[in-house]
Specification:
The protein is an alpha/beta fold. It has 23 helices and 22 strands. Helices cover about 35% and strands about 20% of the residues. The protein is globular and about 90 Å long. Bound molecules: adenosine-5'-diphosphate (ADP) and magnesium ion. The site of magnesium ion has 4 residues, from helix 10.
């Protein structure tokens, strides 16, 4: 039995009552396997003594103490018990806030095993976070390393420990190993049963370390096996394909769209569409990630790809294909998915403007579409009367059917989870997939996560773009910023003002979008049309506002970070971000990318306060502002972001479900990752089918208990 095969429900665990089972279920833990994979966030080392005198050298004291006296301080109901203790090395005091009942449990003259975090205060060594048990009798919570679990409502630390301990005893003996024995031996790793047991309840910190190494390696190994298998499949596919010479040339409709544009494709855009065309002409589904900085023109590439999908196969395709010549092929459909309604609408409007004249039938689908319009649209989609549909996640609602969905484009893909991508992909029969992102992923990670995808990069921006001039301004100097913006407005340009809050929050001394829209409109920019947009407004109002801003009727748009992704209004030349210190680097970069989209010089003002919302400006806050001031390249900003956030917290990796690793961290464990990759690839090179006896275990894991269902694309 593999660990993940322990699908027994949690109520089979002895001592798991209905209340605990419910609480576990609320935390998403429905099986023994899930419970055993609910890993501790920390451990308390109670395996060896740490004397009171050594309190500052260890995270906690773990010793045997004698209670020497009780005394109280404070009055009436606020009275607090102090328990005086001593061990062989010194004296200390336990401060029992709100725990007067401890008077009875910690008796003067008796001895106790004690674990606690101590600090020096009022001339004595004190602890108010401690646990104890009588020194007489067998140790229960002592003499070992105890796990500390992330808590969830309805389950306390003690219950987690008991349930997991019990589950280990009932079910984890023995578990089948998942790693090949040769690797376990070579690296001195633990058998699976022991690893999982020791990760929860290690005998010592050394054991814990071995257990951790084992589990991390196992995770990374299977990650790479899965990626390796896909890479291998692709390689075979590519080899098989070379005879037909896939066609990278522009199609008829693509040519016609480009003729109508007032500009030429950049070299990066051309190369990307060439690669996409080649993929799409091939008999196997495309899986391509298109990376290009903010403003590099990814939307146009997506439209070109969509045209290719819609078109009936060109003559060249038919003549180079073998079996089925003149047979009439169904017109394809393309779905372009965007993370916000605002962005989806903008794409839909562009699609209508650019593609309708070519005889393409575009449509726009969001969750807010009214019943009548919606059912009409759904019918058209199912009948194949719509060629290109743009929308939000509504594109994969259960009641949406496509006649022949052949291309899925996911814009700002880091905003979507894998399940969402899978849901939209499932609407077609192996459609091509194009994922687009301006948020570059650090190389190591890209390698891991998109190891089986092809990548196109648009390295250049359209010609004539000027770097946005970025200025830092203290809040006390905001009047100067407003003056500057007023001059820009006077020349006919437009401006964004972005705030961290939608409405005022009495608990925080922060500017908010609502109040500022009012103030900017009435006082600062008198006589100029100012409007507000944020996520709580209804869609129709948002739509009208954005449309008026796009047309230049509204001159100043006050917003929250809803305008962060995708919004494209080239006449806007000023981006003012207030309380800029509160925004993350990737948000700042995206926001700044809203300006500098035309040929005119644009400006970004990062207005910060040194006492923001009552808190002092943090060092991280300062660093972020500095990074923004000194860099404009998204790739560099992403690297800086990674450094600042530290491993394991890369923008959206976990949340968006690219991959949810249990304990391995591809950045922190980069060395192990590289080794796991070469192990996995070596095995697959030699034995792609995993048929050798020594590889059967790997095949069995993949078949019976596959990890990472989430990375499937
Ligand atoms: P992003 O890559 O951030 O999604 P967009 O697709 O929104 O960028 O494009 C940004 C702006 O650049 C748009 O106004 C678009 O019309 C314009 N654009 C796209 N390609 C070119 C090009 N080759 N030359 C000039 N402008 C272009
Ligand atoms: Mg975009």
């Amino acid at each position: 039995m593999f660990l993940r095969e322990l699908t027994v429900p949690t109520d089979h665990i002895k001592g798991a009552g209905p209340a605990s089972v419910k609480a576990l279920a609320r935390a998403g833990i429905n099986s023994v396997a899930a419970l055993l994979c609910y890993y501790p966030r920390d451990w308390e080392d109670r395996s060896r003594p740490v004397l009171l005198a050594d309190y500052s050298r260890y995270p906690a004291v773990c010793t045997v103490v004698r209670v020497t006296a009780h005394d109280w301080f404070g009055f009436g109901p606020m009275k607090t018990l102090k328990v005086h203790i001593e061990d062989e090395s010194g004296k200390a005091v336990l401060v029992c806030f709100n725990r007067p009942f401890l008077e009875k449990q910690l008796t003067v003259g008796m001895q106790y095993r004690l674990w606690g975090r101590f600090y020096y205060k009022y001339g004595e060594l004190q602890s108010s976070a401690f646990e104890f048990e009588p020194a007489e009798g067998a140790a229960k919570g002592f003499g070992r390393v105890l796990p500390v679990y992330p808590l969830t409502a309805g389950i306390n630390q003690g219950l987690f420990r008991r349930l997991i301990h019990q589950a280990l005893n009932q079910y984890a003996n023995p578990l089948e190993d998942e790693l090949p024995p040769a690797i376990i031996q070579r690296d001195g790793l633990l058998p699976k049963s022991e690893a999982i047991r020791s990760y929860h309840f290690p005998e010592s910190m050394e054991h814990l370390d071995k257990a951790r190494k084992t589990l991390i390696y196992e995770e990374l190994f299977y990650l790479e096996v899965i990626i390796g298998r896909r890479a291998l499949e692709r390689r075979t596919i590519t080899a098989a394909k070379t005879s037909t010479v896939p066609n990278a040339k522009l199609s008829l409709l693509q040519e016609r769209l480009l003729e109508r544009l007032p500009f030429n494709l950049t070299a990066g855009q051309s190369a990307a569409i060439g690669e996409i065309n080649r993929d799409m002409a091939g008999p196997y589904p495309m899986a391509r990630l298109l990376q290009g900085d903010v403003g590099s023109g990814k939307t146009l590439v997506a439209f070109l790809a969509a045209l290719r999908a819609v078109e009936a196969p060109s003559l060249e395709d038919i003549s180079s294909g073998e079996a089925e010549p003149a047979k009439e092929k169904l017109r394809g459909q393309a779905a372009i998915m965007a993370p916000t309604e605002l962005l989806a609408r903008q794409h839909a409007e562009n699609a209508a403007r650019l593609l309708e004249p070519l005889g393409i039938r575009p449509a726009f689908l969001t969750g807010n579409l009214k019943a009548a319009g919606r059912s009409h649209l759904l019918k058209a989609l199912a009948a194949g009367d719509v060629d290109i549909v743009v929308g939000t996640h509504a594109l994969f609602s259960r009641d949406v059917f496509y006649r022949n969905l052949t291309l899925v484009v996911v814009d700002e893909q880091h905003r979507f989870g894998v399940t969402q991508r899978q849901a939209i992909m499932a609407k077609g029969d192996l459609p091509d997939l194009l994922m687009m992102s301006a948020t570059p992923i650090p190389r190591t990670l890209a390698f891991t996560i998109f190891g089986d995808m092809d990548v196109s990069v648009i390295p250049d921006l359209p010609p004539g773009r000027k770097t946005v001039r970025t200025h830092l301004a203290k809040e006390s100097n905001e009047a100067k910023v407003y003056d500057f913006v007023r001059k820009e407005l006077a020349t006919g340009h437009q401006a964004y003002f972005v705030y961290p809050l939608i409405e005022a929050d009495i608990n925080r001394d922060l500017k908010d979008a609502q109040s500022m829209a009012d103030r900017l409109g009435r006082q600062v920019f008198k006589g100029i049309r100012v409007a507000l947009v944020h996520s709580k407004l209804d869609e129709e109002e948002k739509r009208r506002t954005m449309e008026a801003f796009r047309l230049g009727e509204i001159r100043v748009l006050v917003a929250t970070s809803v305008v962060e992704v995708g919004v494209d209004v080239p006449n806007a030349t000023c981006m003012v971000i207030e309380h800029a210190e509160r925004f993350g680097l990737s948000a700042l970069h995206q926001l700044r990318g809203r300006v500098g989209r035309g040929k005119t010089q644009s400006y970004c003002f990062l207005v910060f306060s040194e006492h923001d919302g009552g808190d002092a400006l943090t060092d991280d806050g300062k660093t972020r502002l500095k990074v923004m001031l000194e860099n404009s390249d998204g790739f560099i900003i992403a690297e800086e972001d990674l450094k600042l956030r530290g491993p394991g917290q890369i923008a959206g990796i976990e949340q968006s479900g690219y991959l949810s690793l249990g304990i391995a961290d591809p950045i922190q464990n980069a060395g192990e990752l590289a080794r796991a990759r070469s192990d996995a690839f070596a095995i697959l090179e030699e034995d792609p089918g995993l048929l050798f006896p020594e590889h059967r275990r790997i095949a069995a894991v993949l078949e019976r208990a596959p990890p990472f269902s989430q990375i499937a694309l």
